[in-house]
Amino acid sequence: MIEGETITGVMRALADPTRRQLFERIAAAEEVTVIELTRTSHVTQGAVSQHLKTLKQAGLVRERPEGRNVYYRVNPDGLKPLADWMSHYRMVWRDNIAALKRILKDIDP
Questions:
Q1: Cβ atoms 61, 72 nearer than 8 A
Q2: For residue 94, what is the enclosing H or E element?
Q3: Cα–Cα distance between 104 and 99 in angstroms, integer?
Q4: Are 38 and 75 in contact (CB under 8 A)?
Q5: What's the CATH number where 79 sits?
Q6: CA–CA separation, 74 vs 79, rounded Å?
């Protein structure tokens, strides 16, 4: 089973719409700086930095300092806890959908 703390951190990090938007923008780019993220968002540089800190603590992004800039990129393993958690329930849904199909077929052959 997935560690509760890990999956909770990922879910909490992605629960915020602004953070989710930043994560999606980072995922769409190979690397991106705080300056670039701030320039095209509707929040301050300080807010962007706080959101990035949360994403980093959740393991969703990595940072690479270079001179005065810090570059962010998606951590490829960051969404794994969420994917693993969801796949755990895939069997439940598959079984329930199969049962529903049988019931519907019995009702309307």
A1: yes
A2: helix 80-107
A3: 9
A4: no
A5: 1.10.10.10
A6: 9
> Residue 37 sits in which domain range?
4-107
- Residue pair 2/73 in contact (Cβ under 8 Å)? The answer is no
- How far is residue 20's CA from residue 14's CA, in Å, rounded to a whole number? 5
Q: To the nearest 5 percent, what fractions of the chain are helix, strand and coil?
A: 65, 15, 20
Question: What's the token pair of residue 41?
Answer: 């968002």
| Cβ proximity of 74 and 27 under 8 Å | yes
Note whether 58 and 78 are within 8 A (CB): yes
Cα distances from 35 to residues 7, 20, 55, in angstroms, run 29, 18, 17
Q: What is the pTM of this model?
A: 0.78
The structural domain count of the chain equals 1
Q: What is the pLDDT of residues 34-73, one digit of tens each?
A: 999 999 888 999 999 999 999 999 999 999 999 999 999 9
